Amino acid sequence: MSFCETEILMGDKMETSDNGYDMPMEVLIEILIHLPVNSLIRFTIVCKSWLNLIRDDPQFALRHYLTRTRPSSSYTLMDNVDYIVDYFGKYGRSCNATTDEILRLCIYTLTVKKTFRLVKKIEYGPRLNVSMSNFCNGIMCAYVTSNRGARVLICNPAIGEVLLLPLPHNFATRGTPKLGLGFDSVNNNYKIVAAHPPSVFAGRDFWQVDVYSVRDGCWHNLNALGSLVQFSSLTSESTLNANGRILNWLGYLKYSTKPLEGLLSFDIVDEVFQEVTMPECLYPNSWRQHHILTSSGCQACLCCSSFPSSSLAKDEHFNGIDIWVLNRDNDDDEKMLWHKHFSFTFSDDAPVWPVNVWLNNHELLLHVRKQEGRTEEVYHYDHFTQQLTRTSRFGTLMNPDGYTESLISIKGLMPSSYHQPAGDEDEKDYFCFVREVGRKNNAVHWSYSFKLV
């Protein structure tokens, strides 16, 4: 019996086929949620019911994603990720296309031998300046500009879904924002946070923050900025924590007598900025630096390490890292407590600092510089086995992200009246594009054309 000879009913059981085969719907779903996205997309041609389940059922899509990223029912600090996203190389998540026609976001996987293998690329062009958000449940956001105008896009690259969003009033004249993307699980809603810092060029000495709600299909200006006003700038990219609810940044505090870095969080549900107090031992000094790590099981996760240029070789932290996590107090839900999750010391006298990506609950990527003046190399560290493995990847990964493909459709959550159609590639006005290409022969998997406004 072929697949197409079987029709699945959206009830308790499959319809009995010619050979009497019968399967409960729950069993079928339990099988499908463990399969990769590309397999499920192929299965949409089996029959209409499979198509509806895989393409149009938001509960199935979210359950599939959570099963892929959190396979264990026990507590995990970090989600499993399938891929590592290297946004724009040395430029990190924001890049201006000054010479290249096309900007490329590269997506890698780690082989069994812990080496990087390019899987695919997301390309923007031609001649666009692009600023990216973090990934959230397989979805990303991009702010693209050129001398022709600007656009905000939200995209799920796994299913080739790209949506154009309207621009807030005077958005393009404020400069490049700090973008963050999070998930409001209380209301089943995704939100984009665009924070514009004070700018001398824009004649503005205050922060401006716009929030886009996918379910509402519109932007609104955030008037109550809370602790954000205490920061002169944000020095890191947005990092997702607490199952998508909390976005964290590092930034410089305004009112300190010397440059002092603080931790700023934004609650996606309540839309509140709050400075997170760190223990004294976590505050940076002349040799210590911080990185925020993506984590699902805590409110924040900080990695404390030495600066690569530090000369304090005798300091106990010089060639090691400390991982700290912030969680709510079991006895007082309003109280937050820091604790050291683990420490790692490299056997050689060499600077070690993290790539801000966990691969799963016990695997971390590290930068290691074994000789002064030499280029750093990315290593794979297994916390359980305490094994350090070379990846043969040289150079610094600038603000990478973990990524797992998902079936989640933003279009399904957004009011249909707010959908803005894609452009016709044959029309000259639609000369900008975002597309996915494969690692071999640059074969285009999907492409979306649009115009700037």
Automatic annotation (TrEMBL):
Residues 17-63 form the F-box domain. Pfam families: F-box, FBA_1. SMART domains: FBOX. This is F-box domain-containing protein. It comes from Cuscuta europaea (European dodder).
